[in-house]
Write a structure and sequence with these properties.
This protein has 283 residues and is α/β, with parallel strands linked by helices. The chain is built from twelve helices and ten strands. It has two domains: 230 residues, Phosphoenolpyruvate-binding domains (TIM Barrel, Alpha-Beta Barrel); 44 residues, no CATH class. The protein is globular, with a radius of gyration of 20 Å.
Length: 283
């Protein structure tokens, strides 16, 4: 399975966009049943999406509605061997994550799927979900990722009642907290939020650079053109990979001589740096 680090949102009520999304080569798509779908079309859309998913040529997640009146019906419609997982919005409580986990688990048993094969991606887009990030991320084994919901003008900004800027000062604490607690929870990858200024490629680049510096592995996107831009920034650079290879070779040669701390290209290197280099090459 390709690790879904650069993903593309597609509105569930636009099957034409869902079907052609694979052409842009995202790692996965997130089919949206929540914000992109008017309330009066949610029931119709969930069933249309369920019929569409088996024929898709790309790894797929489905963003469901977290409200009690929609959650179970959404999950019953889309949980199958044809999806990678579920994106759960606003996981403000452990109870909500456990409820989704329980419903998915029951559907896996009914539909002869491997236990925990349908993953959970948690979308941290309220002050409460950010505050409880570690708790909700460790509430179920199927939680594979946490996603920071920091788009300009979106739910988290409204929840925090803060401003938004490209410099990121206003949301820096919340943005950093999601990385810290996601890593502490042991999720497989931590994703940043979407970037809503779809015509400003230079601003997207700047935000992705900051995002990677903070420790994010990638991000969902809302415009196909952004995929190559984001992937080029989040992916390790050739010079980083080559440096890691040299460091590993030098350290292992020194280790064979009984050394575990060496001077390498002007820097002190010990097991911590060696492990970091190996992890970069295996990512």
């Amino acid at each position: 399975m390709r690790k879904p680090l650069v993903t593309l949102y597609t509105p569930g009520n636009r099957p034409d966009l869902v079907e052609k999304a694979y052409k842009y080569d995202p790692d996965a798509i997130i089919i949206d049943l929540e914000d992109a779908v008017p309330v009066h079309l949610k029931e119709k859309t969930r069933h249309e999406v369920a019929k569409l998913i088996p024929a898709l040529n790309v790894q797929s997640f489905v963003r469901v509605n977290g409200e009690p009146e929609f959650l179970e019906d959404d999950l019953k419609a889309v949980v199958s061997r044809h999806i990678c997982g579920i994106t759960l919005p606003k996981p403000d409580s452990v109870d909500l994550v456990k409820k989704a986990d329980g419903i998915i688990g029951s559907l896996e048993r009914e539909r002869n799927l491997e236990p925990n094969s349908v993953k959970l991606m948690l979308l941290m887009e309220t002050a409460l979900s950010v505050l409880r990030c570690f708790e909700v991320a460790t509430a179920a084994k199927r939680v594979e990722s946490v996603v920071f919901g920091g788009a300009e003008g979106a739910d988290l900004q409204r929840s925090l009642k803060c401003a938004w800027s490209l410099e990121g000062t206003e949301m820096l604490y919340a943005r950093s907290k999601v990385v810290l607690e996601g890593r502490a929870a042991g999720v497989k990858y931590v994703l940043d939020g979407v970037f809503s200024d779809i015509q400003n490629d230079e601003a997207l680049k700047a935000d992705c650079i900051l995002s990677r510096r903070l420790g994010y592995d990638g991000r969902p996107l809302i415009h196909p053109r952004h995929i190559s831009i984001a992937r080029g920034i989040y992916a390790p650079k050739p010079e980083e990979l080559e440096y890691s290879r040299r460091l590993i070779a030098a350290f292992e040669e020194a280790e064979s001589r009984g050394l575990a701390a060496i001077s390498f290209e002007g820097k002190l290197v010990d097991y911590a740096m060696y492990k970091n280099a190996r992890e970069l090459l295996s990512s």
